[in-house]
Write a structure and sequence with these properties.
- Helix content is about 50%, strand content about 10%.
- It is of the alpha+beta class and about 350 residues long.
- It folds into two domains: about 190 residues, no CATH class; about 140 residues.
- The strands form two sheets. Strands 1, 2, 4, 5, 6 and 8 form a six-stranded mixed sheet that branches. A two-stranded antiparallel sheet has the order 3-7.
- Strand 5 and strand 6 form a beta hairpin.
């Protein structure tokens, strides 16, 4: 059944039969329900060869199918290259659209619409003042409309696979292309954040009040709300064990910040610390671990008492990505003291 549907989809691509292509895709996805990783990966390998045979609008929707199969367990590395290439192509054209739109209209670019075929030609018509042919205007407008659709499967494969995050093909080109439109497209911020996720990153964590220090390794953390929760989970425990008394969070908060579900009746997470960097500046929970500056080549987090009560919703920004803070070692007292001597004193509000 699945092999026949894959054959049908390949034939539709060969025949440039978009109606048949869109008819087969949902049936193919339904046929993969309950399939094992090997079967899903074999299907994804076949789908990866179709991108070069279909136009961008169909490719974006094929990408969504591939991302969904990766979420079901297929090996996402099989489609990383065509997905990133397709997204980069689209974003580069979308950046050109934004510049051309401002030239032609003097206005901010419009909100994109990807499910209304009349929107594309109507919007492209307004680009005629930017010295573009109608065909060029259609291509640029189509890219502007499809950018988020192309981004969806890339966000999926980045979330489910640390290996893809570590070795993403075409990363530099993708980051540059994304940078050309990010100021205009709030809907791509989610992708931008994923491209900054740290994996296997060493942090030195210092508890100023007790003088204790720790070396931790973080992976898959989307924001500093999640980092704050998981640090408390990793470092909270008996003082006799070298850990921090009185800061251990509700286990349900830790599970939700790592890889578990958010429990329906879960209370808000209560902040245990004020996170401060080596320069004495607050590390805002709304930021990301990649924003934390390095000292002597290592990102340093100082744990100070919270200046006021903070709470936030349990969970994680990227629900398919497993977040982890692993305590690698407790620093000997002299090493912790040496690090504390290097960091600036904690500042006032938002210093």
């Amino acid at each position: 059944m699945l092999d026949q549907l894959l054959d049908d989809l390949a034939q539709a691509a060969e025949d440039r039969d978009s109606a048949r292509f869109f008819d087969v895709m949902p049936r193919l996805f339904a046929a993969t329900e309950g399939a094992d990783r090997q079967t899903l990966s074999a299907a994804l390998a076949r789908l990866s060869g179709l991108f070069e045979r279909v136009p961008s609008g169909i490719g974006a929707r094929l990408g969504v199918l591939c991302g969904a199969l990766a979420e079901r367990g297929a090996d996402p590395s099989l489609v990383a290259e065509p997905l990133v290439n397709g997204l980069s192509d689209c974003l580069e054209l979308a950046g050109t659209f934004a510049a051309a739109w401002r030239t032609a209209t003097g206005e901010d670019p419009p909100e994109p619409v990807d499910d209304d075929y009349d929107w594309i030609p109507a919007t492209a018509e307004r680009l005629t003042g930017a010295a573009l042919t109608r065909e060029q205007a259609i291509v640029l407008t189509d890219a502007w409309a499809l950018a988020h659709l192309w981004a969806m499967p890339v966000m999926s494969i980045l979330q489910v696979s640390p290996r893809v995050r570590a070795a993403l093909p075409g990363r530099e080109r993708l980051i540059a292309a994304l940078g050309s439109v990010l100021d205009e497209r709030d809907d791509l911020e989610f992708l931008a954040g994923l491209l900054r996720v740290l994996d296997g990153e060493r942090l030195v964590v210092l508890h100023r009040e007790s003088g204790r220090g720790y070396e931790v390794v973080i992976s898959g953390i989307g924001d500093n709300f999640q980092l704050h929760t998981l640090l408390a989970g990793a470092l909270g425990g008996p003082a006799a064990d070298g850990l921090l008394e009185g800061v251990r969070p509700d286990p349900a908060w830790v599970r939700a910040a790592a890889d578990g579900p958010v429990e329906p009746d879960a209370e808000p997470v209560r902040g245990q610390f004020n996170l401060v960097d080596a320069n004495g500046k607050w590390i805002w929970n709304e930021g990301r671990p990649a924003d934390i500056p390095r000292l002597d080549g290592v990102r340093v987090v100082v744990l100070d008492p919270p200046p006021y009560a903070r709470s936030w919703s349990p969970g994680r920004m990227y629900p398919m990505m497993r977040g982890d803070v692993r305590l690698r070692r407790i620093l000997p007292p002299e090493e912790a003291a040496a690090w504390l001597a290097k960091v600036a004193p904690g500042g006032g509000f938002g210093r």
